[in-house]
UniProtKB/TrEMBL annotation:
InterPro entries: MetI-like_sf
Protein name according to UniProt: ABC transporter permease
Protein's cellular compartments: Cell membrane
Organism superkingdom: Bacteria
């Protein structure tokens, strides 16, 4: 019964993706796309580090925003996790993590401008929602027995510290350190909206056609991510957190009157500001929904479905490159490098590069989403495959893959795909800022037209859709009785 249900769900998702692919725009429209690809590859082979001072400064800013933003998010997430049993805390956490970091950045740019606080809040707020959920799960999984041996007079703080945090501490530290890698990607992407991180310099280099500088920036970013385990040590984290705020820069001064006006006037729907009543508000919302929200929702769902299935296909094709059942030491090491590059490149950054190379369509977005998320799932499934013990007379080659490994790994693989579903939806929506007609396109257009009330409504709709997809994915995992069984280290 479970096998038949899994087969039906899989085939249903594939069929729906094929229909969406037929309805979408997946053409390469650039005049000479392969020449541009060759120039980029040449830039990676011959990087230009001549502007090492500015590149180094961008790298330091990227690290600083990541450390401070993730640190604030972890602190806020822990406070939320301690009262996560309350429904309104769970709802609030789900809402703030459903809005992408770039959407938060666009909101705070209108009030705080190009000030470090914009980047910090853009990272800290959604990360607080993520940390709240994961921290609460880690604390709930601690052994309740130590609570019974504590004195009855022990207060809540003592019980928390000595009975729960002491057990959960290694897992909390491990997850927080991993989330820092996600924070580095988020910090880099903030450069595309003007923050002085590596993404800003990448965008400028592409605009000027300096592919060697683009190659240098990408190589520096991969080096930063690839060496994370060596320079981010628990003992050094307090030092990094103390130094990082001084590396953020000052930015433009905050005009507090703009902040007040934005939150009290600019985001209020225009019919209410004009005092036109609820009937005018409903007409305003209906027009916004039909003309912008609905097309954005349909394109977001269409692109998400194609990207989700492409992610799954790519992950199934690539997990053997790091599995000990299919590789030797040298080939396995090369496979690890490939997957590190894939999962380390932010979807937004990769989509931006592909849009410059191939022209505007949904194809760059699908490829970017599939490469990043496929790399993550292939890495996790490949690690899971290394835990499987095969009999001595097990077949080799394609028979080993099809009859020995895939049946054992398909359940965890499918659970991971459903886990990434909501994350792919978040990224799909934000890719609209690059010109693809998803919800992010209409949000960005409303902001450019200084119609912040419309932008806020569209952002709220995006958050609600993300929450809905997350709920649906959880129900599908429950229906299919799926448990990914890997770990929580999934961005």
């Amino acid at each position: 019964m479970a096998l038949r249900a899994t087969t039906r769900v899989t085939l249903g998702f594939i069929l729906l993706a094929l229909v969406c692919f037929a309805l979408g725009d997946f053409e390469i429209s650039a005049h000479d796309p392969w020449r541009s690809v060759g120039q980029l590859l040449l830039g990676l082979v011959q990087p230009d580090f001549s502007g090492i001072d500015s590149l180094g400064e961008a790298l330091l800013r990227t690290v600083a925003f990541a450390f401070v933003g993730v640190g604030l998010g972890a602190g806020g997430g822990m406070l939320l996790a301690l009262c996560f049993h309350r429904w309104w805390v769970r709802t609030f956490s789900a809402f703030i993590r459903a809005i992408h970091e770039l959407f938060w950045a666009l909101i705070f740019l209108q009030s705080f401008g190009l000030h470090p606080v914009t980047g910090l809040l853009a990272i800290a707020i959604p990360y607080a929602g993520i940390f709240a959920k994961v921290y609460a799960e880690i604390l709930d999984e601690t052994d309740p027995l130590p609570l019974d041996v504590l004195p009855r007079r022990a207060g809540r703080l003592s019980k928390l510290v000595y009975a729960r945090l002491s057990q959960a501490w290694p897992h909390l530290v491990s997850y927080t350190a991993y989330r820092l890698e996600c924070g580095l990607r988020s910090s880099a992407v903030l450069g595309f909206v003007g923050m002085p991180t590596i993404g800003y310099h990448l965008m400028a280099a592409f605009a000027q056609g300096h592919y060697s500088t683009v190659g240098a920036l990408l190589l520096l970013f991969y080096l930063l991510i690839g060496t994370l385990r060596w320079w981010v040590r628990p003992r050094l984290l307090p030092v990094y957190l103390l130094v990082a705020p001084f590396l953020l820069g000052t930015g433009l001064p905050i005009t507090w009157s703009n902040v007040t006006r934005f939150f009290t006037e600019d985001i209020v729907p225009s019919p209410l500001k004009r005092g036109e009543g609820l009937s005018a508000l409903w007409e305003w919302f209906a027009q916004l929904f039909m003309n912008q929200a609905l097309p954005g929702i349909l394109n977001t769902l269409l692109l998400t479905q194609v990207a989700l299935v492409a992610t799954g296909v790519l992950a199934l094709a690539l997990f053997p490159v790091i599995s000990r059942h299919f590789t030797h030491r040298a080939s396995g090491a090369a496979g690890h490098v490939v997957l590190v590059i894939m999962r380390s490149t932010p979807e937004y950054m990769l989509a931006f590069i592909l849009l410059q190379l191939w022209g505007p369509s949904m194809l760059p977005a699908v490829v970017a989403l599939a490469l990043h998320n496929g790399g993550i799932i292939a890495h996790l499934v490949g690690r899971r495959s290394n835990e499987i013990q095969l009999r001595q007379d097990a077949p080799h080659g394609i028979d080993r893959y099809a009859f020995e490994m895939l049946p054992r790994l398909y359940g965890p693989f499918l659970a991971l795909v459903f886990y990434r579903w909501e994350i792919i939806m978040r990224e799909t929506a934000i890719l609209g800022i690059l010109g693809i007609a998803t919800l992010g396109f209409y949000v960005d257009s409303a902001i450019q037209e200084i119609r912040f009330d419309r932008a806020m409504v569209l952002i709220l709709i995006t958050a609600l859709i993300n929450i809905g997809v997350d709920v649906l994915a959880r129900r599908l995992r429950g229906y299919l009785r799926l448990r990914h069984g890997v770990n929580r280290q999934q961005c």
